[in-house]
Amino acid sequence: METTTHSDIKQIIKDSLTKSMSYAEYRTLVSTLVESNSNTGNEVTEALANYTMLNDRRMKRWDKTVKIDEGVTDSIKNKTLNQTWVIITESWCGDAAHVMPVINKIASLNGGISFRVVLRDQNELLMDQFLTNGSRSIAKLIVLDNASEEVIATYGPRPTTATALVNDYKAKHGGLTPEFKEELQKWYNKDKGQTVIADLVPLLG
């Protein structure tokens, strides 16, 4: 297997950014897919199209309701940043639907953050540089310093508390059941994006 060099990774990121879209463009894409009962990714199925429809509803809700504490808002606005945040996702990913609106809300508070969205199956080379425990888990956020073009942080596929819940459940039961996934959705609904905010603000420096 060939080793990917530092300069290779930089080029892979640049190539993926040429295929990226804004969050608003991504939201439009997902809404369009819902109308045609479809989904992003290499595999199009009724189940994935159904997840896409659920996620469109989730994102609509979070886009309207995510709240960031006033002190945290001021802190984000006052930072001098020159960053690009690239998230790897697909329309059917449940975790992404809960996380992306929060990330967008944070990014929109600081003009020094450009938030871009790329699709996993269109960017496999990029995805393979940012695996989680060897798997192509999404949503995965890559934080880039624009001046140096260096990756300064990564985040995902889930908020820290959700990751701990998943890992504990897997350790006890060997995998995730539909019942657990339902409980995880309830956790997201109760948390209201606050763990994502707490996780991401320290990455701003």
Please work out how many helical segments DSSP would assign: 9
Whole-Å distance between the termini?
36 Å
Enumerate the spans where pLDDT stays under 50 for 5 or more consecutive residues. none
Question: Could you state the order of secondary-structure elements as H and E?
Answer: HEHHHEHEHEEHHH
Structural class: alpha+beta
Global mean pLDDT = 96
Helix content: 40-55%
Question: Please, could you describe this protein's structure?
Answer:
It is a single chain. The protein is 52% helix and 14% strand. The model has no long low-confidence stretch (mean pLDDT 96). Strands 1-3-2-4-5 form a 5-stranded mixed β-sheet, sandwiched between helices. The protein has 9 helices and 5 strands; from the N terminus they run H-E-H-H-H-E-H-E-H-E-E-H-H-H. The protein is of the alpha+beta class.
